[in-house]
Amino acid sequence: MTDTVRPHLNRRSHQQALARQKRRRRKRRLARARRIRVLKAIRSIRFWIRCTAFAAGFLALAFWARFAVVYGIPLYAERGALANVDMYITVKPWWFGPPLFDLGKYGVSSIKSTEPYQVLLDELGKYAESPQFVWVSRH
Question: What is the three-class DSSP state of 26?
Answer without folding.
Answer: helix
